[in-house]
Fold each of these.
Amino acid sequence: MKKRLMFVAFLVLTISIASGAFRYGGGGSYLAYQKFDLTGINTILAEQGFPQLKEDGFGYGGFGYGKVSGDIIVGGGGMEISLKGTKGNKVSNIKIESGGLYLAKQINFSDKFNMKIGSILGGLDKTLVIQEITDDPFLNREYSIITESNFLFNPVVDLEYMITSFMSLQVGVGKSFLVNHGEPTLDTIKFGKMPELYLRLGFGF
């Protein structure tokens, strides 16, 4: 899902810039710290003799954007985070992939410093994998693979500092809200009360 959304975002960005719709554009990569509430799923895993998952971690992703008239930013991006627990030869792992359309308003404080207030609208997939690992890969056991899809609404605020005319450093904070649109198979995997933190390195023109 993430790769498809990022491909669409970058494709739209490229076409729009080529047609002169955007005043400038760019993209880059970012690091995100997220805290989760995994009390429910960890209780279930412990009852079945599987390791519990850690409740926080760092995710990695990429983004692309363009600026239109009126200091409106349009773009997209996506990221992935993996939370893993190990107990002997047993492994529990939850993979969370998210991505979507990014819309924001840019407020300029100076030539080098600005703030972006916006949100990401898209999707988020959770996948839980439970395994037993052995020295012989042919004897590894994969007990369960469960996936749940959600709509994602992620308001974000970023502070951007222009390091050079084409490179910037962005520090942001956001909060993810989910709406399940299928079977709530992994509804015990929730975002915690703490907001997410983002560090982005961008390149533009």
Note: The longest helix spans residues 2-18.
Amino acid sequence: MVISWVVRNKVAASGKPSSFGDIKLWKAEGIGSVVVLNEDHELKHLGGLQGYLEVLRDLGFEVLSTPIRDFWIPTLEQALETVKWIESRVKAGDKVLIHCNAGLGRTGVISACYLVYTQGMSWREAVAKVREARPGSLENLVQEKFVEKFEKYVKKRGGP
């Protein structure tokens, strides 16, 4: 399992764990909080979404579950609430891991939105930085365009 740091030692991106052993590796990396973007059917091998979330919490992780359909995008509000949660965990001193299935599409979208929101990057800069950290991220034009739309949404709201 590969963990890619989007913001060094603060925010990481990854695919879903293939086993409970992968989750223990996250602990070894110092991860304290996990954002789960998967839908229930994608986590059957780990007991489904609810069973998986329970395991994460039992292991001491702070968890945000905000499912997004594979190859698709969140709502603007969902993305904003997710990046705010990530930032609150970072400010609390946690390292945060974001994951979906492969850790590229949905994870790339949320990672780029996080950079737009917290680092003041343009959507293009954010997408480039995420792709540098995790090649193949943001798997389609719809996902890229969403980050552009998110940047405008955040600016219209007056930023963080």
Note: Residues 123 and 151 are 6 Å apart (CA to CA).
Amino acid sequence: MQHDTLQQWLDWLEHQHPKLIDLGLERVSAVAERLGLISPTATVVTVAGTNGKGSFVHSLGALLKASGQHAGLFTSPHLLAFNERILVDGQQASDNTIMLAFDAIFQASQQLDISLSYFEYSTLAAFYVFNQENLDFWVLEVGLGGRLDAVNILTPDYAVITSIGLDHMEYLGDTREKIAFEKCGILREQTPLICLEPDAPDVLSAACSSHRSLVIERDFEVVESSDTVALTDRIRQCQIVIPQTGLSPASVSGALMLATHWLDIELSDDTAISAALASHQLAARFQRFAVDGIEVVADVAHNPQSAELLHQRLSQLPLKDGAKRIAVFTMLNDKDMDAVIDCLKDDFKAWFTAELDNPRARLASDVANAIHNRGIHMISVSKNLRQAFARARSLCQPDDQIVIFGSFFVVAELLPKLLPYAKLPSIE
């Protein structure tokens, strides 16, 4: 198919398949087989979990790059550009490279009379790009669940489960046990497993027992402070202290455990490890900006589990006397908004919500009512997020703080306004 730009391809992909989310491996496996993508020679690390997947993928990528290994990273969703999803040695794939991959996938799917979803095209495009390179590792983030996700057409050499929370319940089930079952679907009989969920449901606990595994709170411990993360390795009886990067501390620590225990990655000392991790920042993971004397935090927290992590991070960043913290916030319809608000309702003096230009978005009036029902009365409703952010800024004095959160789409809309400003450390 002839498209002149990557954006034209993406616009076409959004509408050419009858379902936005179409779980199952048969169709995508057939196209991957036709393209010769099923059996990569590189080591494959597959990462599933409710939260913390991107943090793990990027942390491991940073460690691999620092040690001289060549790695392809696949993550989703993106914030500002589709190219963010496909990295080779830390660099985004070019528009032309991705377009060539899309065209090859289209030709193969046409030959097989198979229709693929947007995410299936994205996944196969990453595999196609990686297959053109001489890579040592493919580090792959599962999009949804695990068992029936397109990433799972590959047999992983190592599997990672970062967390189990109640999200995407319409697809994965309405209990943590059911969701854990879906995420454990990335495992094969002999796949080594990294488990970063301290409260593992039975099916995940059983997998940890039956597989070679490294398990948080059993084999290693993670202690977070305001500016550091201390990883205690109980197997080797040693400790490393690394700076906060804004990423999930458990995911960063899990990546380090995998790299040093099973991948034989050697970095000279703690300083080299810290430098490697600090070099690979991930946007909108408690990302801080100084905007005309006001601190603005962008965070993609969008479900109860990530909201709890945001609450913890905010508690480590106390305001100066008399300063106030303001939320710019909305959510999608399929997310547990009530639980997110309950987790964070005491953290903010005022809430600014707005209409989000997304078919899955909640009405701003519904968001405002949910906030008001918790006894919060300083609420502003705007016609769009840019207006909400402008109104929040107009209420602020120096040393006040604005926190933007609730969805990847919320942050993506406002992040371009923040990027010209100076970035602050993740947590001081």
Note: The mean pLDDT is 95.
